[in-house]
Amino acid sequence: MSDMRIGGLASGMDTDKIINDLMRAERQPLNKMEQDKKWMTWQRDAYRDVNKQLNELDTLAFDMKLERTFNSKDVTSSNSAVSATASSSAGTGDYTISVEKTATAAYNYSESAISKAGASFDPDAKLSTEQGNLKNSLTLGQSFSVTTYNEDGTKNEKTFEVTGDKSLNNILSEISDSNLGVRAFYDKSADKVMMERTETGNFNPEDSGEFLGAEIGFNGSDEFLSTTLGIKNGDNSTGTWKKAERGGTDAEFTYNNGLKITSHSNNYTLNGVNFTFNDITDGNIKVNVNNDVNQAVDKIVEFVDKYNKIIEEMIGKTEEKKYREFPPLTDKQKEDMEEKEIELWNEKAKSGLLRNDSVLENGLSSMRTNWYTPVDNNGDFQMMSQIGITTSSNYRDGGKLSINEDDLRKALSTNPESVHKLFAGTEEKPGVARRIENSIETTISSIERKAGKSTALDNNFLLGRRIKDMDDQMERFEERLSQIEDRYWAQFGAMESAIQKMNSQSAYLMQNFG
Q: How confident is the model at residue 5 (pLDDT cuts 50, 70, 90)?
């Protein structure tokens, strides 16, 4: 089909307008296809929006199966020297703690400045260029080893090479990046090197006979650490060797005025309560653990509110009026309308996309049934009404739920375990939350078979295949329209040729017989 056509030269007719009008009529089926495709696209997106909401409810339903949702604990301490957190299994009541020692991390550092007086030592420069700036001797090509200990008594040992192409910071970084659990660095203002364990505790007792009980063990005869950096392994100034390292102590505390306990760290868990020792205490302090009813109530209310919102939206979609007199607008129709007019039209056109949808209605029915069907368990509660959650008495609410928070708080305070069983149940005897999950899974799967996911290929779901088929039909129809338009132009062209020929004959006759 040519883009440049001129007609009506012989007939004087507006051929272009006539053919455009004819083609407008011919395009009506294509416009209907475009509207149908737009409708199916909107419907697909509406289904996916429902699935998005259901997935959010599914996440909350999962939380309702967890014991910690109903047995969360509120912990208070009478002194900031000891803080604590409690797991859902922690026993409630008072815990008496006195802390005699806190755990510390072992550390060792240069006894004096490592630079020569008046010199400027650069820790980032190659050691081959910095030998003259160090106070003590440095032999390149040597090696040294560092040993640390694990809680089970096993050792971590690493050997490091001192070469001229490395800087001091290179070697200290190698120590820090190894599996030794040691942090090593040079402080320029103090002109000293610090080595410290990254975790607290005494893992190498003094009576072990290794490195005088140091946590960061090394051979005192190694020149680089002992001489060049001035970090001593031990001190013999009194005639008896003592380790030069500081720290590396365990925490020591007494529980309930009788049980003495040591810990490598300042955290220790007893009966589901994790204690953190921030300082030594002056006598006993009390840590109180109670059920945190407020948090459990908030979680349940959040779940019910989300359920009610989804029920309201799904009912709204299945009962939404469909305006058949407002079909989707084609691109051509939008060209003749104002933006506000398009917005108002689309509002009507998108109404009723999921009206009377069987998948949504079945999902709604299933989720409603989940709430009022008794749960077979060995707890005190088998019905939601027993903990203050009931179905609204107003039939217009479509099965939305109401919560009596006083009854809910009472149930959570007296027997949180039974409330958990009511929601969770087991695989064989599912509770309400597990039932809701199953209903959601079934509904989501049914919707995905019709509308797919955003990442799904069109061939993998019903509406996608229909939209693809519609695209193919539209493409074939476009080709047909092109052929029809070519035919119209050919027909009008033939007419123009005939008229032109007739006009020529008429002019010839007038000239010869006029």
A: low
pLDDT at 291: 84
Q: Read off the tokens for 32.
A: 């209907």
Helices (H) and strands (E) in the chain, counts: 14, 17
Residue 2 has a pLDDT of: 47
> Could you identify the residue written with the tokens 């190894």?
178
Q: Which residues contact 512 (CB under 8 A, 6 or more apart)?
A: none
CA distance 269 to 87: 10
Exposed, middle or buried: residue 394 (CB in 10 Å: 0-12, 13-18, 19+)?
Answer: exposed
Structure token digits, residue 356: 């009377």
First-to-last C-alpha distance (Å) of the chain? 43
Check residue 493 and give its pLDDT.
74
Q: If you search the block for the tokens 């040294």, which residue do you land on?
A: 144
Q: Are 270 and 259 in contact (CB under 8 A)?
A: no
Asked if the model's pLDDT at residue 255 lies above 80, the reply is yes
* Dist. CA 488–CA 22, nearest whole Å: 9
| 80/94 Cα distance (integer angstroms) | 16
Q: Token pair of 284, please?
A: 């006993």
Q: Rg of the Cα trace of the chain? A: 42
The number of CA neighbours under 13 Å toward the Cβ of 322 is 14
Strand, helix or coil for residue 187? strand
What does the pLDDT look like over 145-167, one tens digit per residue?
999 999 888 999 999 999 999 99
- pLDDT at residue 192 is higher than 80: yes
3-state secondary structure of 435: helix
